[in-house]
């Protein structure tokens, strides 16, 4: 099966030019002006952008979390992703206490097998190096394509690790060439603040933010950076939400340390006041770190513009408001933490980042596709448009006007963080490895099409499985 995408504006992190893109099979084999090649399928992209499929390095599909299970599994989550122009993501395998990493990995492969629509890799969330997995076992993961270890410095009594486990994992990563990812909040201090708030009868959603002040994120971010420096590992700080966490990352990067940071779409648009919405509506915005005071939004735009932060992910961790979020109706600490977002990242960042002049089109591609692919061992198979790369492509209509609504979304959640937002610019046709997966508002492949991607170690390139077919 071959496909020729004609006359689109091809945009990568570095380039922007009008060309035809031809894929014979799964990979791009020709890029050029007015290509004269026979193709099974021709897509007219005149007046449209041709973007690399977006890569989301931070999602939680089918995850038992907060007393329930995230509502999007690999089928509905991948459908949402594909409709939103994301063609590859990296999801978190959670090691449960007492389990080996092999057991956890097998369980997560079982969740995606037969359901996947787009391609995905896995990170390993390390929760226990005492009674379950071992440092020796951690060292075996990169050979299985799992080249990043995630640690939670918060969620005390659940996924949180102590500094010993954090540091031992960092040392292991320094040896194995894996990337260490941290959820950086001071979980001990937050646990005390939560208990004190509940003892005072403070139960509403807004107390989720008031018991997790920005300084707790800043402190943990700095701690992780300093410990990573001692251990000699590469560090990636997930879902940075505020100035207090941006500042230590900026200092480390200025000093040339091996530290990278990510923020998520919602932190640019949802602020603390959303948590104050009456009638429990604030619960929709209970995710961690919490929505911050509005002035942080400009700090984050500046950080992504200047490469203090290098990635925008979604942290898609979807629940329903009517049932799952209601678990915490009388106690904010029981509201499952997380929100949906896989579907709307490209629309939101294009509309309000690029169209409103905050970031360039090339920088958007870098933040949503190229940098996540490079940092997580997927590049150049994913994250760019080049001969030999997977034909993961988005034909994007920059003028299409869409109103974002839960009623029409693919996610199984019953709300949308950006409900009612009018965006201009939306994916029209989406291809994964040369096959159209979304077109005309319809899913075009069966669950099971998506492949597991064994990622390269940090700093190494992921080569195509075989050379591209000759044209
Ligand atoms: O609230 C969130 N972010 N839920 C997902 C788990 C995490 O902390 O990333
Ligand atoms: Zn987190
Ligand atoms: Zn997350």
- The helix-and-strand class reads alpha/beta
**Strand content range:** 15-25%
Secondary structure tally, helices: 12
Q: How far do the termini sit from each other?
A: 13 Å
Mean pLDDT: 97
Low-confidence stretches: 467-471
Structural shape: globular
Bound molecule kinds, no repeats: N-(aminocarbonyl)-beta-alanine, zinc ion
Sheet having the most strands: 9 strands, mixed
Query: What portion of residues is helical?
Result: 25-40%
Beta strands, count: 19
Specify Rg, calculated over alpha carbons: 21 Å
Structure description:
The protein is built from twelve helices and 19 strands. With 471 residues, it is of the alpha/beta class. The structure holds N-(aminocarbonyl)-beta-alanine and zinc ion (2 copies). Residues 183, 238-239, 288 line the site of one zinc ion (ZN).
Describe the protein's topology:
Elements: E1 2-11, E2 16-24, E3 28-32, E4 41-44, E5 49-52, E6 54-59, E7 64-65, E8 68-69, H1 74-83, E9 86-94, H2 101-112, E10 119-125, H3 135-138, E11 148-152, H4 163-176, E12 179-183, H5 187-199, H6 206-210, H7 214-231, E13 234-237, H8 243-254, E14 259-264, H9 266-269, H10 295-305, E15 311-313, H11 345-354, H12 361-375, E16 393-403, E17 422-432, E18 435-439, E19 442-443
Parallel strand pairs: 1-4, 1-5, 6-9, 9-10, 10-11, 11-12, 12-13, 13-14, 14-15
Antiparallel strand pairs: 1-2, 2-3, 5-16, 7-8, 16-17, 17-18, 18-19
Helix pairs in contact: 4-7, 7-8
The structure holds N-(aminocarbonyl)-beta-alanine and zinc ion (2 copies).
N-(aminocarbonyl)-beta-alanine is lined by residues 60, 183, 287-288, 315, 317, 337-338.
């Amino acid at each position: 099966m071959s496909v020729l995408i004609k006359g689109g504006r091809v945009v990568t992190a570095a380039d922007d030019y009008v060309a035809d893109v031809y894929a014979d099979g799964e990979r791009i084999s020709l890029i050029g002006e007015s290509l004269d090649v026979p193709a099974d399928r021709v897509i007219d992209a005149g007046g449209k952008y041709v973007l690399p499929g977006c890569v989301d390095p931070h999602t939680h599909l089918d995850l038992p979390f907060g007393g329930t299970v995230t509502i999007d599994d690999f089928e509905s989550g991948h459908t949402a992703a594909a409709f939103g122009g994301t063609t590859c993501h990296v999801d978190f395998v959670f090691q449960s206490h007492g389990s080996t990493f092999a057991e956890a990995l097998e369980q997560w492969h079982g969740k995606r097998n037969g359901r996947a629509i787009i391609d995905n890799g896995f990170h390993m969330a390390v929760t226990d190096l005492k009674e379950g997995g071992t440092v020796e076992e951690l060292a075996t993961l990169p050979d299985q394509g799992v080249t990043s270890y995630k640690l939670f410095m918060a969620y005390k009594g659940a996924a949180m690790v102590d500094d010993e486990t954090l540091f031992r994992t960092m040392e292991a990563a320094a040896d194995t060439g894996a990337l260490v990812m941290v959820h950086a909040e001071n979980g001990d201090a937050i646990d005390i603040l939560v208990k004190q708030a509940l003892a005072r009868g403070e139960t509403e959603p807004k107390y989720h933010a008031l018991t997790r002040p920005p300084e707790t994120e800043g402190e943990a971010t700095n701690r992780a950076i300093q410990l990573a420096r001692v251990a000699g590992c590469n560090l990636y700080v997930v879902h940075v939400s505020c100035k207090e966490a941006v500042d230590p990352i900026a200092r480390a990067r200025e000093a040339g340390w091996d530290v990278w940071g990510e923020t998520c779409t919602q932190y640019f648009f949802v602020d603390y006041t959303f948590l104050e919405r009456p009638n429990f509506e604030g619960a929709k915005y209970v995710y961690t770190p919490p929505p911050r005071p509005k002035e942080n939004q400009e700090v984050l735009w500046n950080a992504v513009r200047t490469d203090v932060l290098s990635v925008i992910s979604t942290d898609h961790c979807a629940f329903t408001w009517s049932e799952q979020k209601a678990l915490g109706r009388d106690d904010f600490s029981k509201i499952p933490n997380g929100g949906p977002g896989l579907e709307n990242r490209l629309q939101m960042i294009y509309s309000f980042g690029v169209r409103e002049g905050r970031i360039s089109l090339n920088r958007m591609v870098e933040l949503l596709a190229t940098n996540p692919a490079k940092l997580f061992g997927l590049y150049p198979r994913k994250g760019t448009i080049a001969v030999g790369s997977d034909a993961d492509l988005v034909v994007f209509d920059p003028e299409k006007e869409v109103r974002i609504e839960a009623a029409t979304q693919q996610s199984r959640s019953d709300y949308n963080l950006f409900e009612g937002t009018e965006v201009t610019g939306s994916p029209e046709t989406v291809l994964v490895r040369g096959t159209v997966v979304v077109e005309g508002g319809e899913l075009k492949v069966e669950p099971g099409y998506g492949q597991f991607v064994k990622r390269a170690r940090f700093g190494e390139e992921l080569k195509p499985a075989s050379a591209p077919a000759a044209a």
